[in-house]
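Internal tracking record. Fields below are filled automatically when a chain is submitted to the structure queue. Please do not edit lines marked as system-generated. If the sequence contains nonstandard residues, flag them in the REMARKS field before resubmitting.
Queue: standard
Priority: normal
Entity type: single polypeptide chain
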Amino acid sequence: MTRTRAPRELRTIGLIGSLAFAFPGLYLIWRNFTSGADPLGLLFDTQTLEPFWRTVRLAVLVSASAAALGTALAWCTTRTDLSFRRLWRVILPIPLVFPTFIGAAAFIRTLNPGGLANDVLGAIGINETPELRGLLGAWLVLTLFCYPYVYLPVAARLRQLPGSFEQSALILGDTAAQAFRRVVLRQISGSLTAGTLLVFLYTISDFGAVQLMRYDTLTRAIESNYLARPPMAFALSLILLIFAGLVVLAERAVNRRLPEVTSRRISQPVIYALGRWKAAATLLVGGTLLFGVIAPSAALIDWAADGLLRTQRGGRPLTINFSKVVEAATNTLTSSVITGLVALLAVAPIAFLVGRYRDRIGHVAHSIVIATFAVPGILIALSLRFWTLKSGFFGDLLYNSMALLIFAYVVRFGSLAMGTALVAVKTVPDGLHDAASTLGADRWRRFRSVDLPVMRPGLLAAAGLVILSTMKELPISLIIAPIGFPTLTTRIFGSFEDAFVAEAGIMAVVLVCASALLSWFLVLRRADHL
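SYSTEM-GENERATED OUTPUT FOLLOWS
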């Protein structure tokens, strides 16, 4: 196919879209030099260094443990004779539907006196349970609810690996462990580093879990300072932004040195007999599901049921009613669906510029959109909130508006749609497009009759990823959401903070069930690893 020049309108739209994605980060940098902030002076201040090193420590620990756990689970369910491994493949990604702050609250309340675990252990004479707070609690929660970011790409890669290399290594005398280290690990290194990067970036941007665990990271410091000491919040935000950017650059540098691997499986993968290790592998998979799925689910159901039963018996009435739950759920779903559609409309022109026209402006715009994934949600929210306060007429127009909330969501999660949309554009065969052009179809007719039918599944999947992520977003919802526009995440977080556990449990059950259903229909049901 002869590549034609991209239409001027499409290039203009792509350029404007990329600038919109870059705006919060650029504004944050500009405010650091105009608001009296001193990021260089704060760099070696104890108020900065302490939360920064706590952030680094937590991110390194969570990334390492999630990488190890996700890879081990992927190996057990794809390359061994583990019993019920097809069932495990379906269940293991489920922790993704839990927002991390809900998981943190579940562990805190379950282990506290009066919690479910405390009651169960008390029945057998154990009257004390450990209190999960600080680094240990934040590490455990984030590991349990982030390992699927490693598990999913590694499991998919393991299913595609040709078995001939491993067979050769085994014939030459290598043990299974040696074959994994020398052959398999090199082949899955790209998927492993990509998944680990997602975990690292998620950890440094997390606010809800570290807030409930009372572990002081940069995100907690930014949240506690953005009203009382804006210059300090701007300086801390810039440090976090630079740190996230350096991590992404380091990951890309490492990836360039990784070996090229084939993506086609030309022989059946080797299935290893676990033998005496089968019990340990079953315990690993079962234990992960116990703490990552069953325990938090049981805790949420227990809180919700306890609150409903207490109200029925004439005890303390709930502070929420059916209409409030419906209102929060409707707001959550509405804003998420709108965000998914807007994000798709925003990234589709850029995907066409890159995938169809190989346009230089498109490649620059694509890089900008992808880079926004490294910008934590709290930084986007902080930037846009202060912009509306300082920008006069336009700020007054957008302050406490749905438009600003949707824009913040799109900037935060548009990168998730970008990759999938680009793949969808590339799935349209060049010959099919050339045939439509030969038959005289204009640009719009080719798009409607040729491109759109082929791309529709990929575009819907791209919007679905954004919808699922938006439903669980907390910092942007807390800071940017209009007054009188509660979402499930804000009401759940507020209920936990105010110790209204039953109310939080009811709304958390609604959020998790909705996320689970959407995850199944939009992602898991069609996932290759299932």
